[in-house]
Specification:
24 strands; globular; 736 residues
Length: 736
């Protein structure tokens, strides 16, 4: 029997799984497909990290490692839902919740002193940031808006804020002394073992990383950001925002870039509150309140300081004297600087562009914004889109084209910042990358406080990426642009390899080109306005950014993208769209018993997962895929996706309607009479009881819901909340 692995993750998609998974299991069984789950939630990964030292009754298997191994096999068929890429505050909150549930976990120490604390932190550090996706992504990314979704957006356009020619919204970026400008890159002539070495000015040598295995043809990069240059840049931007009377905001990715970006975030906090740190810096820094965990962590920590209230008043004065801060929640006083994981660049920038180039100010009103993106690698992409909107107005969802993406990510390609090769430089000196023969491949002169990092990109994923780009261009008849900048060291090497590997494929009649990200963005938005599609073929970080930027503009959300990862060894990974794990949705459920998470991404991924099994010879799986696609299109046409307010359809209601429409399609199809008969009674019952079931699902809304935990809900409570219709549950059970 074929097996689909459905992942259990976090927050809103995890809650949605309690409701939708029973539907998936029941329908899949009819096609001879078994559905299993694996817990790769933040809580599950934390417990797994300590299972060798926990009491036996508290141990859990390492589901992520298991799925990582499975992803390298032809048998893999994995449906991956969005998960938390944990920042330190999220990690600590999850640990606290698990401890309260009686699990014997150690604390995460801000300043580990003992061997036990250092061991605990090392385990937790493997859970932080983008710890899931690199393990599972043994293939490159193919993300696009399905025709049904695009058609729906054209028929029912989402809101787009108007733009004016006098908008003062802009992106601020360093452009020098940053990761992009300092980058060096080499292509390995042979397999080797590298060492990353820091030599201080006094001659002290420290191996930051040794035994780093690389393959022939592997692209290895190294770069750093100057702390002094960063501080000077940030001081200028704080002053600029004040002078231009626009909101000040910073856009980083302190989740995925788990080492570099929290450090940068701390620099931003200290730059904004320059006077506070000038007066109280020693006390704050001694208490570990450097801003890397955000302003909220600082304010929470002031209670431990002797003059904490005096410092608190200084921070309040800093907010009053500085430029107005962009807000995460104006009503609650949560600023752009409160929590590093609250403002994630790939989601926050397109949301700002969609909203007239505005963010929310302290007064609860929209305002023009200075968006600070320190590293200049991709900041220009956002500036290009902003300039286009300022010149030509907002995009029109009813006519605009699409920008699908083919992204290089297999085998941890270009995993900048989320791995173990990013370092805060301890002292002035030189950082070198040295090969096994002792030859220096790359070298940077650095100063204390600089952020140095390296990354790797294997040759086989690059070849597969080029192949996938050609395949998508051929299948769709769409121009494809490789977003690569010849003035950047890594990209320059990639351009040579792309040109080489394009020669391995039939590209006759195809429009395939290479352009810098800025120029590619300009071309893509020009074509968007003409209603034309353009495939963006990008590296890993731009893949992450573009698969939010364009879908949010085109569709109103990135959660409606079809995301297929053809695994290099023949398996399939089907991601349920971008869009994060939606913590605000959970808050609304707990407060109002209303979950506005849209599972459309799950529906799309599931259909492709069934289609993958069909391609291996399971005809019934193919029927399930085709009928689910039709059901999804009907769901959109009938407007049965979640709304936003109590008293309207929510996530649970959309699951009922997709099951209803899917059953009707299966019962009505003529390719498999036995399958049609198996669903006939269920389809009739769902149709006859539709009004009553819909009413049941809506009637529970409006009061608080108890799910028994945030990072790890209690199964019984969560299931009861997410499956409140006894009629629906009983009908579904008929398929069992």
């Amino acid at each position: 029997m074929a097996t689909i692995i459905y992942t259990f993750t976090d927050e809103a998609p995890m809650l949605a799984t309690y409701s939708f998974l029973p539907v998936v299991e029941a329908f899949a069984k009819a096609a001879g497909v078994d559905v299993e789950t694996r817990d790769i939630s933040l809580a599950g990964r934390i417990v797994a990290a300590f299972s060798d030292v926990l009491p036996e009754d508290q141990r859990e298997s390492d589901a992520l490692a298991e799925l990582g191994a499975l992803a390298t096999t032809p048998e893999a068929n994995i449906i991956k839902l969005p998960n938390i890429s944990a920042s330190v505050p999220q990690l600590k909150a999850a640990i606290k919740e698990l401890q309260a549930r009686g699990i014997d976990l150690p604390d995460y120490s801000d300043d580990p002193q003992t061997d036990a604390e250092r061991d605990a932190n090392a385990r937790y550090d493997k859970v932080k940031g983008s710890a899931v996706n690199p393990v599972l992504r043994e293939g490159n990314s193919d993300r696009r808006a399905p025709a049904a979704v695009k058609n729906y957006a054209r028929k029912h356009p989402h809101s787009m804020g108007a733009w004016t020619a006098d908008s003062r919204t802009n992106v601020a970026t360093m452009g020098e002394h940053d990761f992009r400008s300092n980058e060096q890159s080499v292509i390995m002539p042979a397999a080797d073992t590298l060492t990353i070495r820091h030599t201080a000015t006094d001659g002290t040598v420290t191996d930051l990383k040794s035994g780093l295995k690389v393959l022939e043809g592997e692209v290895v990069d190294a770069t750093f950001m100057s702390a002094k240059a960063l501080d000077a840049f940030l001081a200028d931007q704080v002053a600029r925002a004040k002078a231009e009377d626009v909101l000040f905001s910073v856009h980083l990715k302190a989740t995925m870039m788990k080492v570099s970006d929290p450090i940068i975030f701390g620099h931003v906090v200290r730059a904004y509150f320059k006077d506070v740190y000038a007066a109280h810096g020693p006390a704050l820094l001694a208490a570990g309140l450097d801003g890397s965990n955000g302003l909220a962590a600082i304010l929470d920590g002031l209670a431990e300081l002797e003059n904490g209230e005096e410092i608190r008043a200084a921070f309040e004065q800093g907010l009053a004297d500085g430029p107005r801060l962009a807000m995460v929640n104006s009503d609650k006083g949560i600023t752009n600087l409160h929590v590093p994981s609250d403002v994630i660049v790939d989601a926050s920038m397109p949301a700002m562009i969609r909203t007239s180039g505005h963010m929310w100010g302290p007064d609860g009103a929209e305002a023009d914004t200075l968006a600070v993106i320190p590293d200049s690698s991709y900041a220009g992409v956002y500036q290009s889109v902003i300039d286009d909107c300022r010149a030509h107005g907002a995009y029109d969802p009813t006519t605009m084209g699409s920008v699908p993406n083919v992204g290089l990510m297999a085998q941890k390609a270009e995993e900048y910042g989320s791995h173990d090769k990013t370092y805060l430089v301890a002292s002035d000196g030189v950082v070198e990358v040295v090969n096994g023969a002792g030859e220096v491949l790359m070298s940077h002169r650095v100063e204390a406080g600089d952020i140095w990092r390296a990354c790797q990109t294997k040759d086989a994923p690059i070849q597969d990426w080029v192949k996938l780009a050609v395949t998508r261009a051929r299948l769709s008849g769409t121009p494809a642009i490789f977003w690569l900048d010849e003035s950047r060291a890594h990209d320059r090497n990639l351009i040579g390899l792309v040109q080489k590997y394009l020669g391995d494929h039939d590209t006759d009649g195809l429009d395939i080109s290479i352009a810098s990200p800025v120029e590619a963005a300009k071309t893509s938005v020009e074509r968007i306005r003409e209603g034309k599609d353009t495939i963006s073929v990008t590296g890993n970080v731009l893949r992450d950014y573009n698969t939010d930027l364009f879908p949010i503009l085109e569709l109103g959300t990135s959660a409606k993208m079809l995301s297929v990862v053809p695994l290099m060894n023949g398996g399939g990974l089907f991601e349920t769209g971008a869009g994060g794990s939606a913590p605000k949705h959970v808050q609304q459920l707990v407060e109002e018993n209303y979950l506005r998470w849209d599972s459309l991404g799950e529906f799309l991924a599931l259909a492709e997962s069934f289609r993958h099994e069909a391609n291996k010879g399971n005809a019934r799986a193919g029927i399930l895929a085709d009928t689910l696609d039709k059901a999804t299109e009907k769901l959109l046409d009938e407007n049965k996706s979640p709304a936003r307010r109590v008293g309207q359809i929510d996530n649970r209601g959309s699951h009922f309607w997709i099951a209803n429409y899917w059953a009707q399609e299966l019962a009505g199809q003529h390719d498999d009479a036995e399958l049609a008969a198996a669903f006939a009674d269920v389809a009739a019952a769902l149709k006859d009881n539709a009004e009553a079931i819909d009413a049941e699902l809506i009637s529970v809304q409006g009061s608080p819901a108890d799910i028994g935990g945030y990072y790890r809900p209690e199964d019984a409570k969560a299931s009861a909340v997410m499956r409140p219709s006894s009629r629906f549950n009983e009908i579904l059970a008929q398929l069992g």
